[in-house]
């Protein structure tokens, strides 16, 4: 039984995070209240605000900061790290984002891509889409292990290692089956390229099928990554939970987001089921629209939805989804979605909608 009080650390960071994180936190709080969960939100100034006050966006000991935040909260809602009109282009809080990912060992990158409304799907043939990309987030070719020999010469050799461990592959495959089981998906599709990457993806094959054996109520299915990309465009309705390695997951997450309206409508979780996890909108700092009161709060609010769901508060998470659907249906949306409203007005609509949907 989930606890009825949760403590969230909200870190707007840089740029548009300052528009969308307060908005998302407000909706999360109201969705919690409407479903009997007290959501306590503490805001932290790491990023541009700290830079303006102290001349540095972050303290020197970022891992220590992350451990301290983790010891005092149940989850972290992060905005964005990068450009902000109030600080020089070289200053940002990206090290905190990296620190959160690594210190907390957030090995699951969870990117749900449900279709909010048929008009957001660029495909001509409209079908229901409800994809979830579960990307291994700590290994693969993105660990930056490798090197260059004779760099800058015509004899240069560049080596990038692909790290795949039993522990890493097993825990992400297990998470995918358990996620599917817990969220009503009938199957898990694993994407690899084991015909060519015989060693690394041979491990994925063995571990995936062994994990499928242990979760017989959910079907295991395999696709080569190239085939899956093609089939996702042709028949996105045939897929649900997809599990894959770090790099393929990076690419697939954006492909799936593109099928349901783009990264501006996508939230994500950087999850460690045994530790505290971090949730963020997929979009960046959007310096062109930051601080103007016009940013779309949906992606950050959807990150809040994933957070509530992860913390076991499914009812509150569902209320957020329902409220966003209602906002789209009634055209209570920001300019990027063709609406007339600003961030605050959309947020207020969502807050009222969660209570209305909860029957309160
Ligand atoms: P970064 O380098 O931090 O990733 P970016 O500008 O390259 O930043 P985004 O911040 O994702 O990438 O912005 C891409 C485009 O999407 C921009 O035109 C931006 O204004 C728009 N955008 C991003 N987030 C939002 C939002 N919440 N509401 C409306 N438009 C947004």
Task: Tag the structure with descriptive keywords.
360 residues; alpha/beta; ten-stranded mixed β-sheet; two-stranded antiparallel ribbon; 11 helices; 12 strands; 19% strand; binds adenosine-5'-triphosphate
Architecture overview:
40% of the residues lie in helices and 19% in strands. Helix 1 crosses helix 9 (298-310), helix 1 (17-34) crosses helix 10 (314-329) and helix 10 (314-329) crosses helix 11. The protein is globular. Strand 8 (187-192), helix 6 (200-213) and strand 9 form a beta-alpha-beta unit. The relative contact order is 0.18. The strands form two sheets. A ten-stranded mixed beta sheet has the order 2-1-3-12-11-4-5-10-8-9, with helices on both faces. Strands 6-7 form a two-stranded antiparallel sheet. It has 360 residues and is α/β, with parallel strands linked by helices. It has eleven helices and twelve strands. The model has no long low-confidence stretch (mean pLDDT 96). It has helices at residues 17-34, 48-54, 62-72, 94-103, 166-182, 200-213, 225-234, 246-259, 298-310, 314-329, 343-357, and strands at residues 5-13, 38-43, 75-80, 108-114, 130-136, 146-149, 157-160, 187-192, 219-224, 241-244, 267-271, 277-281. Adenosine-5'-triphosphate binds at residues 16, 20, 80, 82, 264, 283-286, 288-289, 295-296, 299, 336.
